[in-house]
């Protein structure tokens, strides 16, 4: 299992489009991927679950990946969440 604390740096936070892209990315991996924020844990492959977190730029989350491609999944998700479009 790979677990990492990540601060979201996307300019728009995790609004509808960025959440959809994150879910799409997480869904490419066989590993289970979860995002935790304020004692809530949701499947990163669930668009409805991710939307319930209401994450903004600067929010801190814990991302957990477990499975055969967990290292690659974590690397790509971290790169996506920490990129700054500005």
Written account of the structure:
- Helices cover 37% and strands 27% of the residues.
- By secondary structure, the chain is an alpha+beta fold.
- The model has no long low-confidence stretch (mean pLDDT 94).
- β2 (32-37) and β3 form a beta hairpin.
- The longest helix is centred in the last third of the chain and has 13 residues, at 70-82.
- A four-stranded antiparallel beta sheet has the order 1-4-2-3, covered by helices on one side.
- It is globular.
- The protein contains three helices and four strands.
- The chain has helices spanning 16-27, 47-53, 70-82, and strands spanning 2-7, 32-37, 40-43, 60-66.
State the helicity in percent bands: 25-40%
Strand order of the largest sheet: 1-4-2-3
The string of secondary-structure elements, in order, is: EHEEHEH
Poorly predicted sequence stretches spanning 5 or more consecutive residues: none
- Count of strand segments: 4
Quote the beta fraction: 25-35%
Q: What average pLDDT do the residues reach?
A: 94
Largest sheet: 4 strands, antiparallel
Class from secondary-structure proportions:
alpha+beta
| Rg calc | 11 Å
Count of helical stretches:
3
Give the terminus-to-terminus CA distance. 33 Å
Q: What best-fitting shape do the alpha-carbon axes yield? A: globular
């Amino acid at each position: 299992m790979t677990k990492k604390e990540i601060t979201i740096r996307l300019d728009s936070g995790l609004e509808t489009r960025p959440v959809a892209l994150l879910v799409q990315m997480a869904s490419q991996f066989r590993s289970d991927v979860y995002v935790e924020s304020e004692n809530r844990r949701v499947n990163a492959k669930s668009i409805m679950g991710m939307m319930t977190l209401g994450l903004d730029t600067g929010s801190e989350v814990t991302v957990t990946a477990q499975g055969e491609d967990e290292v690659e999944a974590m690397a790509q998700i971290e790169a996506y969440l920490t990129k700054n479009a500005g």
